[in-house]
Amino acid sequence: MTTESTSTSGPHTARPATLAPPRGGTARTAPPRSRAFPEAPFAAALVAADCAAVLPAAVALTPVQRSAALFLQITVAAVALHARGGLYRPAALGAVRAGAYPTLLDELPAVAARLAFLWCAVAALLAARSPELALGPGALAAAYALHLVSAAVLRGAVHHRRRRVARGQPRAALVVGAAPAAHRLAALLHQHPEYGVRPVGLVTHAAQDIPQPADAAPPGPALPVLTSPEDVQRAVIQNGVRDALFVTGEDGTAHPGHAAMLRRNGCALWIVGPTAREEAAPAPMGRHLWGYEFRLLEPPEARAGRLSKRALDIAGAGLLLLAAAPVLLLCAAAVRLADGPGVLFRQERVGENGRLFTLLKFRTLRPENEREAATRWNVAHDERLSPVGSFLRRSSLDELPQLWNVLRGDMSLVGPRPERPYFVERFSRLHAGYAARHRMPVGLTGLAQVHGLRGDTSIEDRCRFDNHYIDHWTLWQDVRILLRTAATLIRPAGG
C-alpha cells in the first residue's frame, strides 16, 4: 500500500467543457462517469442460464435414470464445453467494445452442436455403466431437445438484456479516418444507438481533412475534430473514451500514424472497413456496425494477460481482506474514537481509460469543503491531523479499504496510483505521457512507489516509471512489486 496525498499547489482553475456534448446538446463541465455495463455480470448470467437449462431435460428421463449426481455431471460438462468453445469470452459473446452485441441465432449452431455431443456421450456412458439405465432413441432425442430449447430461451433472455443495457448506456468512442468515411460512420452510429456507441470526436491530420460530405447520412451532433495529441488526451479523459474506430480509406489503409498515440491513451483499437473483412476470421453475420466489418487490433496475448492480472487481484485482495479484518476493525474504531463519525473517506478518482470511480480510505482529517478535498495537493503536515490520522498515513494503513476497490474492479493491486480529476487534467497538460498512465488499471501500489516516489515527489518521475511499468508488464513483475511493497511497509514513511 502507498501513502497517498490529498490534493494542489496553485489556484483552482475551472475544467474545460467536454469536447462532445451528450445527447440533448448540453455541454458538461465535468467528465461523465463511464456507465458501460461490465462484461463479467453477463458472462456469469450466461453460466447461470446454462446451469438452469439442464433441469428441463429431467422430464424425458425415467425415475431410475434421474439422479442429482448425473445432472451435476451434465451441468459441469455443459459449462466446460461452452467455456472451451469460447461462449463466455468477451469476443465470443460479441462484446465488441464498439457495439454489435449478438443475438441467440449467432451462437445457436455452436450451442446445439455441443449439447448434441454431450447427450451422445451421456447415453454412451449410461449404457456402458449399466444396461438398465441406457437411454432409448426417443428419450435421448427428447432430453436433447428440452435441454437445447431451455438453453436457447435462457441465453436469449441474457443477450436481450445485454443489448438493452448497451443501448441505454453507450460507450464513448473516437472515429479515426479521412472524409467522407469517418463522418459517415459517426453519423450512422449516432442514428443507430443499438450498437451501444456514442462518437465524441473525429481524429484526423487536419481539421479541413473532414468536410461534411454531401451524400452522408443525416448528421447527429456536431463533433469536434481532434488534430493534436493534446486534443486526443483531453477527449479520452473528459469523455471516458475506451474505443477508437479506424475507418479504412478506399485504398484499404487504416491511418496507422494515429494508432500508437491512441493506444498510449488507453483506447482499444478497432479497424472498420475492407481491411477488417480481408484479415479477420469469419464472424457471425449479425456482428457488424450497420454493415461495416470490423476487428479488434489487439495482440492475442493482451487478453490472457488481463485475465491473469484480474485473477491475481481477486485472489490477493480477497485473502488480504480476510487476513486484515482485525486490523481494519481496529483502524475503524481508532478513527471513530479520535475523529468522530465518518470512518471512511470517499473521493472521486480517475481510473483506467479515464473512467471515474469512488476511492475508499480511512479518514485522517476532515477537509473544510469539497474544493479543498479536490484541489489541495498534500496534507501530510496539516495541523488538523490527529495522532491517529498521522499514524495511519505514515503506516499506509489508511489505504486498506482500497482492497474493496480492487475486488470491485475499480483498481488493481499493482498499477499507476489514481489521482483526482483536477490533477489529472493539470498534469496531462504539464507532463507528456501523463494521460498514457490510464491505459492500464490503477493500483494500490506500483513501480514508482517501490522506488520511493510517494507523497510530494516528482510527477514527471512517477509518470516515467508508470509508463515503463505498463510497457513492460508481466504477471511476475506484479508479484515482485507486491513483495517489495510488503518489505517497505516495515519502514513506513509519511506522504
UniProtKB/TrEMBL annotation:
TM helices/strands, residue ranges: 42-62, 68-87, 108-128, 134-154, 311-335
Compositional bias segments (type: Polar residues): 1-11
Bacterial sugar transferase domain location: 309-490
InterPro entries per UniProt: Bact_transf, EPS_sugar_tfrase
Domain of life (superkingdom): Bacteria
Pfam families in alphabetical order: Bac_transf
Principal subcellular localization: membrane
Membrane-topology descriptor: Multi-pass membrane protein
Sorted UniProt keywords: Membrane, Transferase, Transmembrane, Transmembrane helix
Region named Disordered: 1-34
Subcellular location(s) of the protein: Membrane
Family: Belongs to the bacterial sugar transferase family.
Name this protein carries in UniProt: Exopolysaccharide biosynthesis polyprenyl glycosylphosphotransferase
